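WARN no homologs supplied; continuing
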Amino acid sequence: MVINELLAPAQPITWLPWAVQYFFLIGLAYGALWLGAFELWRKAPDPRLQTLAAVLMVAAGLVAPIALTADLHQPARAWHFYAQTRFGSVMWYGAYLLPLFSLLSMLLGWLLLRPALARRGAEGDKIARLARLLCLGSWSGHVWQRPLSLLAAVSGLSIALYTGLETMAVAARPLWHTPWLPWLLTLSAVLGAQSALLLLNLLLAGWHAQTESTLLRQSGWTLGLLALSLLGWALFGGASAAEAAALHRLDPSWRLAAHWLLLTLGLAGLLRLLWPRISARLALWGLALLGLHLVWGLRWLVLIQGQLAPKYGAGVYLYEIAWGPAGVLGILGTFGLLLALLVALSELVRPSASPAIKAPTPFAREAL
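OK structure emitted
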């Protein structure tokens, strides 16, 4: 008998938690953009939802590229994307698509926020003067909103495809190399944006019943479609699903993360089923937080836990998250920056409900 020994030395993971933050935040940005742009084309648009979507798309759209730059390990090397031509590289296209998306989303967000900035500018404090300055005059930007929303929505679609395809392109990792991945990332990004907007509607002054009802209805359909899509991937995902099954069998940390993710999905579904029997306030907070956790956890499972399977060789790698900027501190710092921008924007615009809508006391919230 001949015994062949296979040695698989452990290698450090390439994509750090910064990548999870980028995929999560850019998903919130283009998801909020789509929701805000969709409102512009409705017969009876919801101004509250438009304002909240603009706040989220601007804040997340500013923080996401920062996380991506940090994940490059040597941020100064980003200029190589522009100094060299690489038509076969998905990331080379992304180097042009991402700045374009940032520009269009910031412009659309600003146009959607101008009415709120104008109202805030009518007050007499120092922040009101800043709000008036950011309006750049008293002209009406309504005529530009719909055309720009179309361009920005298409740009958001390009980013959704880019972020999915740059992962799917790694053929050496069967888990990633599947057409299911871009779809799952995009669909979950929309759920994340809907969950975040539910939270913002609760937290910011001017709670709006119509906004909450719209987001609850939309997020219910999105959650159900995401659950069916995950089931479809598990049954018909081919090599990708087989790789996930092998990781579930061989790696305790993958197994724990997968079970945690399924538990989150199950709890979200259970909350919707038990909605009439429990506190509406508790259910809203639970659905919003579980939705965000589900979206972030899916990216962690795919991007970080997925790298524990060697591209070549046998076995699995061990990963211990660092406490510094490449790990826990980076995650907390990114979320802290997002929160700071949300606070600043909410103080600038102070989104409010329509005067015709009276907000029930249990859900009224002061501005952040």
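DSSP finds twelve helices and no strands in the chain.
OK
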